[in-house]
């Protein structure tokens, strides 16, 4: 009769063993790709920043196209405003030239006291004095048609000056918008250029993302954190190797602790491998600097080998800890103190 419990337990263990081996190989692939990327990236650029730059490059290209189209429109608007400003300047110059001729005629006639040689106004105020003389009726009859022509809003120097001021404000606004558009274009171009260099370095990781490896999302883990994951997986893998050796070759001359706890041995291997990684990183931090480990630039194969050995020899490591745990528990117990002497009561007859 088939023992279905034993059969199911063996199947689960086999599947679990395959899963450990699969994720261990997956971690090796990703760590190897990340180490190649770190070797090609520019100094000061981290793995996560490079991935962020590459992911933002698509949006940057769209923003660049939109900014270029906006800049083209703004440039056309600026050219139109500049042409209109030039036309207004020409019209203002012609109107003021007519005003100067009328002023000379009025001064020569001596009819208007507003325009005397001693207090002749300048600029637009001169046109205001001429219009005041026209309103008072103190201008020669020959100048009235010219003044009436200047009163027209299309030729009025005051109206032309107001339109020129509004046009100048619009031109300044367009120039500011154009400067902001140029800044955004420059920023997008710099990001695209930077993403091009990062994309070349991340090519191997991009290939992994496009394969089945990308389904698990582990390529997004930074190298420094990936080393911790790889140490844990290598510890599980090392413990799995030793466990399979004990299962396949029960009668061996290896001095390992014999145990039927399949799951505990493998889990202990992974945890001890992580503990060894922490001790190594802590030792580096105490003796020198932990910058290399924190940046994820150390040799991942070294940590992988250490994790496998720590996981495979986890029982010996645990035994060593147990044998040397003399701080809190001592094998030699102190002798008990002697009982206190009890005084004998005195004899009443004595």
Distance between the termini: 91 Å
Give start-end ranges of low-pLDDT stretches: none
Count of separate DSSP helical elements? 11
Number of domains: 2
Structure description:
It is a single chain. By secondary structure, the protein is mainly alpha-helical. The chain folds into two domains: 13-45 and 222-322, no CATH class; 53-200. It is 72% helix and 0% strand. It contains eleven helices and no strands. It has helices at 4-40, 47-109, 124-136, 144-151, 157-201, 203-210, 223-248, 262-287, 291-294, 300-312, 314-323. Helix 2 (47-109) packs antiparallel against helix 5. The chain is rod-shaped.
In brief:
The protein is mainly α. The chain contains eleven helices and no strands.
Keywords:
single chain; about 350 residues; mainly alpha; 2 domains
Secondary-structure map:
Layout: H1 4-40, H2 47-109, H3 124-136, H4 144-151, H5 157-201, H6 203-210, H7 223-248, H8 262-287, H9 291-294, H10 300-312, H11 314-323
């Amino acid at each position: 009769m088939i023992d279905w419990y034993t059969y199911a337990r063996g199947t689960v263990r086999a599947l679990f063993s395959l899963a450990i081996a699969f994720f261990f190989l997956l971690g090796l692939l990703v760590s190897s790709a990340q180490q190649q990327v770190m070797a090609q990236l520019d100094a000061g650029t981290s793995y996560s920043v490079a991935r962020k730059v590459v992911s933002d490059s698509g949006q940057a290209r769209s923003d660049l196209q939109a900014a270029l189209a906006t800049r083209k429109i703004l440039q056309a608007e600026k050219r139109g405003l500049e042409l209109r400003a030039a036309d207004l300047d020409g019209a203002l110059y012609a109107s003021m030239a007519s005003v100067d001729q009328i002023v000379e005629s009025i001064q020569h006639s001596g009819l208007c006291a507003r325009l005397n040689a001693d207090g002749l106004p300048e600029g637009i105020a001169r046109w205001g004095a001429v219009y005041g003389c026209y309103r008072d009726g103190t201008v020669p009859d020959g100048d009235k048609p010219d003044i009436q022509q200047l009163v027209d809003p299309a030729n009025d120097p005051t109206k032309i000056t107001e339109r020129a001021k509004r046009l100048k404000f619009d031109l300044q606004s367009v120039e500011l918008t154009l400067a902001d558009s140029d800044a955004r274009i420059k920023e997008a171009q710099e990001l695209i250029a930077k993403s091009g260099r990062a994309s070349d370095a991340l090519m191997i990781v991009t290939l992994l993302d496009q394969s089945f490896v990308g389904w698990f999302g582990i390529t997004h883990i930074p190298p420094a954190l990936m080393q911790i994951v790889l140490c844990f997986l290598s510890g599980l893998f090392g413990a799995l190797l030793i466990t399979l050796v004990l299962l396949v070759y029960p009668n061996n001359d290896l001095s390992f602790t014999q145990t039927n706890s399949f799951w505990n041995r493998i889990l202990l291997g992974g945890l001890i491998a992580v503990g060894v990684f922490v001790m190594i990183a802590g030792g580096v931090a105490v003796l020198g600097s932990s910058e290399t480990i924190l940046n994820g630039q150390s040799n991942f194969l070294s940590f992988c080998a250490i994790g496998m050995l720590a996981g495979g020899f986890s029982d010996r490591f645990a035994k060593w800890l147990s044998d040397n745990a003399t701080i809190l528990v001592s094998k030699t117990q102190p002798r008990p103190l002697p009982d206190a002497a009890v005084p004998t009561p005195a004899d009443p007859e004595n």
